[in-house]
Design brief:
6-stranded antiparallel sheet; single chain; 5-stranded antiparallel sheet; 11 strands; alpha+beta; rod-shaped; about 15% strand
């Protein structure tokens, strides 16, 4: 069908030249859908063999069995010709140069081995051409030999790839679209050794519609040079007067355009959706980071109520973004924030013991949340310690007052007042002032009584109270062993005084000191174990885990007030930073 609706005109001239036998060969076959044109130049023909003819017959025969112009088919056709020339008997091995043209009357593809040449003209100008597979051609490409000297170079027929070599890889072109008036020429060395390319180009730049006229011009030009040793020469030309045009091409093009437009619209829609989703994700990430930054800022300013709101918003976006890492981090933040809020509530209500526990829990958990609010919580714990000390001073003053140790009681009340004022503890200040007023009233009334008896009794009570105070002070300084000594001595004093109430009170303190000492012992044991684990991890090269264990141990030693251990663990953590490259 395609052949009938196209106009391909092929002709050739092939002569022996000055040789006894013509070893060149040209053949072609034009089928309805595909055509095949082949030219071959025999290199070494043994008696009784015709390598060029055998190669062309093999190509055409296999082409007719399965017409196609694919690159794979071209490679297979040349491989079959190569196999045929090798033969089963080594003494019959034959060699040739070969060029094959395959076309579907709309486009063509060429493949070749050796130094037969293809030259294509479009609009009178060279459009495509082959390059010889010879040593001389390599010299030209390396600029060691001028291109116009190739036809006379002694290595022009020294081929590194040719048919019959066995396993040689041909050069195969991509599919090339044909246009009306295109001309494809094929020729052997008998032509290109005697005619240069410019002379051939002149012939086909002025070619008419008759292919035979152009062939005659080429042969006349060749013979006019009267070469002394004219090799076999073959020249073939294919005039593409009319290329096959598919009648359904317009409809196909319309469908292609429609489908292309739909595809473009679909792609644009998908891209827009992707951009929208990407932009939305970026906005969410930006908002999440904004809320997270606000959370940190509010924590730094002590506004944990707003920090909780901002952290909740950031966590909601982390869930939408499926950012599990950020979500886990924000949950740790929320736990600390909510615990601090509970502590603040108890602090405001005056439940300092409960508040103290909550602040300690939050401070302990803060290590999992970038140590947020550490300063705030430590300040609160310091205030609670001061508030509790104020109450202890007042309680000690009250005890001394009950024992008529007015000067000692006054000292504790004044100490309570001073500490309360420094800590801005209004209720404590008021309580201390009230206690002082009560003290001075009772003191004035007691002066009229027997000073000697009251003084002796008071001295014993003061001694016990001072021991208790010293025990309280030692307890505040975390010297539980010292506190136990003071409380034991105070207990002895109160037993001597027969003061059962204070005996019980001091016993409670002793029990509390024992519990705290046990707690600290356990905490120290835990710290030492964490330090040991850090050393093990360091020894195994796991510096991140080692750092984590050292920081945990440091935290416990900080709570224990062991400055030497804290400094040592801090140095170990810094060493891990150096080993991991962390800042």
């Amino acid at each position: 069908m395609r052949k009938q609706n196209s106009d391909f005109s092929a002709a050739f001239v092939s002569e022996a030249g000055n040789q006894l036998k013509n070893s060149d060969y040209f053949g072609f076959v034009e089928l309805d859908e595909y055509a095949c044109y082949v030219i071959a130049d025999g290199i070494t023909d043994l008696p009784g063999t015709e390598s060029a003819r055998l190669a062309i017959e093999t190509v055409i025969l296999h082409f007719q069995e399965n017409p196609s112009m694919s690159g794979r088919r071209m490679r297979r056709l040349i491989a079959e010709a190569d196999k045929a020339l090798n033969g089963r008997d080594s003494y019959k091995r034959q060699e040739a140069s070969l060029t094959v043209i395959l076309t579907d009357y709309r486009s063509f593809r060429y493949g070749y081995l050796g130094n037969t040449r293809m030259r294509m003209y479009r609009g009178g100008q060279v459009f495509r051409q082959t390059e010889d597979m010879s040593l001389a051609q390599e010299f030209v490409e390396q600029e060691k030999v001028a291109k116009d000297a190739l036809q006379e170079h002694e290595e022009r027929n020294n081929l590194y790839a040719y048919l019959g070599q066995g396993g040689a890889k041909p050069r195969i072109s991509k599919k090339i679209k044909l246009l009306d008036t295109d001309i494809i020429t094929l020729y052997t060395r008998g032509i290109w050794e005697n005619l240069d390319e410019a002379e051939l180009d002149d012939v086909f730049s002025e070619a008419g519609n008759e292919v035979q006229d152009s062939l005659d011009d080429v042969e006349e030009l060749l013979l006019s040079k009267q070469p002394q040793n004219l090799e076999n020469y073959t020249f073939a030309a294919i005039f593409i007067n009319k290329v096959y045009s598919d009648p359904a091409k317009a409809k196909k093009r319309k469908k292609i355009i429609i489908f292309s437009i739909l595809a473009v619209v679909l792609v644009i829609a998908v891209v827009c959706i992707c951009i929208f989703l990407h932009q939305r994700r970026l906005r969410r990430i930006s908002d999440m980071n904004f809320y997270f930054t606000n959370t940190v800022e509010y924590i730094n300013t002590g506004n944990f109520v707003r920090a909780k709101e901002e952290c909740g918003k950031a966590e909601e976006l982390a869930v939408k973004l499926k950012d599990n890492e950020m979500r886990g981090r924000l949950q740790e933040y929320l736990f600390v924030i909510e615990t601090v809020l509970l502590a603040d509530e108890n602090f405001a209500a005056g439940s300092y013991g409960e508040a103290q526990n909550y602040y300690k829990n939050a401070l302990d958990r803060a290590r999992y949340a970038d140590f947020i609010g550490e300063t705030y919580m430590e300040d609160k714990l310091d205030k609670i310690a001061d508030y509790l000390s104020v109450m202890d001073y007042i309680a000690l003053g009250d005890m001394l007052l009950e024992k008529a140790e007015y000067e000692k009681a006054e000292g504790h009340y004044l100490a309570a007042k001073k500490l309360a004022s420094a800590s801005h503890y209004t209720e404590g200040t008021e309580a201390a002032m009230s206690a002082l007023e009560k003290l001075y009233t009772q003191w004035a009334e007691a002066e009229a009584a027997s000073q000697q008896l009251a003084s002796e009794q008071a001295e014993k009570e003061v001694a016990a109270a001072e021991l208790t105070a010293n025990g309280d002070k030692a307890c505040l300084e975390r010297d539980f062993a010292g506190a136990e000594v003071y409380y034991t001595m105070a207990l002895t004093k109160y037993q001597e005084l027969g003061d059962i109430a204070n005996e019980q009170y001091i016993q409670q303190k002793l029990d509390s000191v024992a519990a705290k000492a046990a707690e600290e012992a356990e905490k120290r044991k835990t710290a030492e174990n964490l330090e040991w684990q850090g050393m093990q991890a360091q020894g195994n090269g796991d510096y991140w885990s080692a750092k984590s264990f050292y920081l945990q141990a440091k935290k416990l030693y900080l709570e224990l007030g062991s400055d030497t251990d804290v400094e040592r663990l801090a140095n170990l953590a810094e060493q891990m930073d150096a080993l991991t490259g962390a800042g």
